[in-house]
C-alpha cells in the first residue's frame, strides 16, 4: 500500500465494525491495493476503509459471510479474520484481534520515500472549535488529513473563512470548500505536516478513555451572582489550545469544562465568547471541570456583554 495523495482509502481510529455501503470512496476512486486470502487462494482488492476492528474492501471476488480469511498487507504478517457481509463488489471483514491502525500508517510512512510521505485521511471522533464572523461553534469533526477536515455542516457556507481550534494542537485557518448532506469540508490555508499531525493523532489514540463526567451539583463556582453560561470558549496552556465549555463567570473567577485536565496552580489564557480573553490561574478541578481565578478582574461592561448572551426563559 502507498500513501499517495490521490488514494481514497480511509484509515479509522473508531473501533466499529464496517457497515455495508457506509459511504466514502466513489466507484472510480483509486484505493490502496491489498490482497484477501480465502480457501487457499489470494486475490487483489481495493482497501476502502480500515479500522481497529475490521475493514471494508472492494473486490470482484465476493466472500460469503462468516467465512475465515486473512487480509494481506505489504510488509506485515497476515491479519486473520472472518467475512461479515458481502454487498455487490464490497466485502466487510472483522479482525480476530484489534489492529493498531496508526502503527500501520507509521510503517507505510517509513517505507515511503521522503517526497512521498503523506498521511492518509484519518477518521476520528473529536470536537473542533470553528470561529467565523465573531462567533464560535464547537462541531463534531469526522476526519482529518494534512490538507483539511470534515465536520458536521451546521451553518457553514462555501468559501467562508474560518479559524479552527483543536484540542492540543495549534489553531489553524481554513476555508469552507463544500457543504452537502449535513457535512462540510474545510481546507487548511496552510497544510499541516505529517510530522505535526501524526504525533497528535498518537496522543489521541493513547489518551485514557474516561467515563462521561458525573453532574456536579452546584458547580465549582458557588457565587449566587455568577453568570450561568453554556457557551463555547478556548483555553491555552503554554503553546497548546483546548476547546472548552464555559459554565459560570464572575468578575474574578471562571468555571469551564475541557477534555484536558489542568493542575491546580497552572497558568492559563482563557478566551471567552464576545469579550476576548485574559490570563488566569487554576484554583480547583473536579469531575472534569476547572475553576480558575482571573489575574485581572473582568470589567462591568464585559459582564454585561456576557449576560446578554444568556437566552431568556
Shape: elongated
Number of helices: 3
Number of strands: 19
In sequence order, what are the helices and strands, one letter per element?
Answer: EEEEEEEHEEEEEEHEEEEEEH
Q: What ranges have pLDDT less than 50 throughout 5 or more consecutive residues?
A: 1-5
Strand content: over 45%
Largest sheet geometry: 13 strands, mixed
Distance N terminus to C terminus? 57 Å
Structural class: mainly beta
- Percent of residues in helices comes to 10-25%
Radius of gyration: 23 Å
- Mean pLDDT score, rounded? 88
Structure description:
The chain contains three helices and 19 strands. It is mainly beta and 313 residues long. Strands 1, 2, 3, 4, 5, 6, 7, 8, 9, 10, 11, 12 and 13 form a 13-stranded mixed beta sheet that branches. It has a six-stranded antiparallel barrel with strand order 14-15-16-19-18-17. The termini are far apart. The relative contact order is 0.10. The model is unreliable at 1-5 (pLDDT under 50).
Amino acid at each position: 500500500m502507498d500513501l499517495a495523495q490521490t488514494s481514497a482509502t480511509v484509515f479509522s481510529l473508531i473501533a466499529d465494525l464496517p457497515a455495508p455501503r457506509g459511504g466514502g470512496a466513489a466507484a472510480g476512486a483509486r484505493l490502496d491495493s491489498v490482497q484477501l486470502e480465502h480457501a487457499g487462494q489470494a486475490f487483489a482488492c481495493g482497501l476502502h476503509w480500515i479500522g481497529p476492528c475490521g475493514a471494508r474492501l472492494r473486490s470482484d471476488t465476493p466472500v460469503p459471510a462468516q467465512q475465515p480469511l486473512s487480509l494481506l498487507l505489504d510488509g506485515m504478517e497476515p491479519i486473520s479474520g472472518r467475512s461479515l457481509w458481502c454487498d455487490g463488489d464490497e466485502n466487510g471483514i472483522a479482525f480476530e484481534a484489534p489492529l493498531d491502525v496508526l502503527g500501520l500508517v507509521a510503517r507505510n510512512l517509513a517505507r515511503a520515500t521522503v517526497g512521498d510521505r503523506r498521511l492518509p485521511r484519518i477518521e476520528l471522533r473529536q470536537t473542533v472549535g470553528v470561529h467565523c464572523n465573531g462567533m464560535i461553534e464547537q462541531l463534531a469533526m469526522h476526519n482529518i488529513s494534512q490538507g483539511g477536515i470534515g465536520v458536521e455542516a451546521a451553518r457553514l457556507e462555501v468559501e467562508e473563512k474560518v479559524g479552527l481550534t483543536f484540542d492540543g494542537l495549534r489553531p489553524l485557518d481554513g476555508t469552507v470548500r463544500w457543504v452537502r448532506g449535513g457535512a462540510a469540508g474545510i481546507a487548511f490555508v496552510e497544510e499541516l505536516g505529517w510530522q505535526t499531525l501524526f504525533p497528535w493523532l498518537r496522543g489521541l489514540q493513547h489518551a485514557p478513555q474516561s467515563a462521561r463526567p458525573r453532574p456536579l451539583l452546584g458547580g465549582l463556582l458557588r457565587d449566587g451572582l455568577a453568570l450561568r453560561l453554556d457557551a463555547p470558549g478556548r483555553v491555552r496552556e503554554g503553546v497548546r489550545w483546548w476547546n472548552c465549555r464555559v459554565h459560570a463567570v464572575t468578575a474574578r473567577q471562571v468555571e469551564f469544562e475541557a477534555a484536558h485536565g489542568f493542575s491546580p496552580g497552572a497558568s492559563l489564557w482563557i478566551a471567552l465568547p464576545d469579550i476576548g480573553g485574559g490570563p488566569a490561574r487554576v484554583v480547583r478541578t473536579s469531575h472534569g471541570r476547572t475553576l480558575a481565578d482571573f489575574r485581572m478582574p473582568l470589567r462591568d461592561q464585559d459582564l454585561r456583554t456576557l449576560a446578554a448572551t444568556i437566552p431568556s426563559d
